[in-house]
């Protein structure tokens, strides 16, 4: 098994993240092979497997980092709009996030088929770790007065499902997509977010 210094490990990890994101954005997780990833990064196949057990694990790691970056960018939106009632603020956040997807080609090309593929290929603990990351970020919304009626676990899973559904709408025209997203968000958030008056 190859041994790398901490600096070498970080350089290789960054290359895997960068080239993996580029390849997954261009071709999707199903079509990209580990051979293509190692060729693009200039590392041996064995080296790849010292970092990730599969290309799907790499994909999930990249997606998690991109989502984390998006959540961090959303802080400015939250601070600017914190005077909105909680449900309107949450709705604005999710509409903002879907607009932001244009900056993240790998996330933008994901859809329900991608999610199904990852659920089949990845062990449940990998999916659960990703869900925990989403749950932790969603809990930060409480700092802005957004309280979930059903608890953070159910809210996280509901909003993850909603996100996949919205990704499937990307083929629609912008006006139609926006209208559908707003109708669905209004209904879901009415059930998820504690009413401002209570």
Q: Can you walk me through this structure?
A:
The chain is mostly helical. The protein has helices at residues 6-27, 34-41, 45-51, 55-80, 86-100, 105-108, 112-121, 124-139, 152-168, 174-192. Helix 8 packs across helix 9. The chain contains 10 helices and no strands. It is 73% helix and 0% strand. The chain folds into 2 domains: 1-52, Arc Repressor Mutant, subunit A (Orthogonal Bundle); 54-192. It is elongated, with a radius of gyration of 18 Å. The longest helix has 26 residues, at 55-80. GO terms for molecular function: DNA-binding transcription factor activity; transcription cis-regulatory region binding. Residues 10-70 form the HTH tetR-type domain. Keywords: DNA-binding, Transcription, Transcription regulation. This is TetR family transcriptional regulator. It comes from Bittarella massiliensis (ex Durand et al. 2017).
């Amino acid at each position: 098994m190859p041994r790398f210094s901490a600096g070498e490990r970080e350089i290789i990890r960054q290359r895997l993240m960068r080239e993996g994101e580029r390849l997954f954005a261009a071709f999707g997780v199903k079509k990209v092979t580990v051979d293509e990833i190692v060729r693009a990064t200039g590392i041996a196949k064995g080296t790849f497997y010292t970092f990730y057990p599969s290309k799907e694990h790499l994909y999930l790691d990249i997606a998690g980092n991109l989502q984390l970056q998006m959540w961090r960018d959303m802080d400015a939106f939250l601070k600017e709009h914190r005077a909105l009632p909680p449900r309107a603020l949450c709705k604005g956040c999710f509409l903002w996030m879907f607009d932001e997807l244009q900056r993240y080609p790998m996330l933008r090309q994901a859809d329900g088929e991608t999610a199904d593929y990852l659920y089949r290929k990845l062990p449940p603990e990998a999916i659960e770790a990703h869900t925990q990351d989403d749950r932790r970020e969603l809990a930060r919304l409480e700092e802005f007065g957004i309280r979930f009626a059903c608890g953070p676990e159910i809210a996280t899973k509901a909003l993850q499902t909603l996100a996949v559904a919205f990704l499937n709408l990307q083929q629609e025209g912008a006006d139609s997509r926006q209208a559908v997203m707003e109708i669905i968000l209004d209904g879901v958030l009415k059930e998820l977010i504690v009413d401002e008056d209570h």
